[in-house]
Amino acid sequence: MNFKQVVFDKDKEIKLDIYDADSDVALPGIVVIPGGSYKTFKERDAARVALTFLTKGYQAFVVEYPVNEKKNYQDAKQSISMAFDYITDHAKDLNVDTDKLGVIGFSAGGQLAAAYSNQKDTKAKFAILGYPVLTQALDEKIGIHSEDVTKQVTKNTPPTFLFGARSDGLAPYIDHIYPYTEALFKNNVNFEVHEFATGGHGFSLANQFVGVVNRDRTDEHFAKWFPLCLEWLQSL
């Protein structure tokens, strides 16, 4: 594996972390958008997710968007577009199959991933949303002005996989995943959703690999979202 970082905007601290599998053939690609309430990037949602996808034959990338005092929703959205533009422009050098390039976002990063997947010029062929924030319900708490991405879904939205936990009190199913899946269904978009009875917000892969940086929070049942997601990706 080779690691490389590309800086798009030094002042806004917009960067792309590249986890290169060092393959001699084009591989599927996954762009990871970590959560963290625009305060920080949660390691559980970032490098460890990228490395896990790397072991499954993906070229993996992590987007670092403006956080803390530089946080801005529109700038964060632009960060995702910059990342996809860079990857597709350098697909040959990065050995990425752009027909199998998608995005995964967690929590606040899930909102950004969903918003990008719904853009008319999106280059994401699929989207994976983990315990995502999909409305403006947390804007005041986070301190940003976002948008209700449940209203952006169209028939052109790419296939989407969603997962969360019934006990998620920060981004409740009824306020976020439910209205988004309803919009996907009404627009005849290919989707799969798993709302687990166990686990919670911010569990990421829910295994020991992320548990060691996530207050030892693991959940064997919730962790099944990952193999289920890989099966779903194979079906596309």
TrEMBL record:
It comes from the Bacteria. GO terms for molecular function: hydrolase activity. The keyword Manganese does not apply. Keywords: Hydrolase. InterPro entries: AB_hydrolase_fold, BD-FAE-like_dom, GDXG_lipolytic_enzyme. This is BD-FAE-like domain-containing protein. It holds the Pfam family BD-FAE. Gene3D superfamilies: alpha/beta hydrolase. Residues 16-122 form the BD-FAE-like domain. It comes from Lentilactobacillus buchneri DSM 20057. The keyword Hydrolase applies.
